[in-house]
Amino acid sequence: MSSFDERAKDWDADPAKVARARVVADAIRATGTLKPGMTALEYGCGTGLLSFALQSDFESITLADTSQGMLDVLAGKIQNSGVTNMHPLLVNVDFQPVPETRFDVIYSLLTLHHIPDTDGALRYFRTLLKPGGFLCIADLEKEDGGFHGSTVTDVHKGFERELLQELAENARFSQVQFSSVFSVIKQVNGASRAFPVFLLTAQAK
Question: Contact 135/167 with Cβ under 8 angstroms?
Answer without folding.
Answer: no
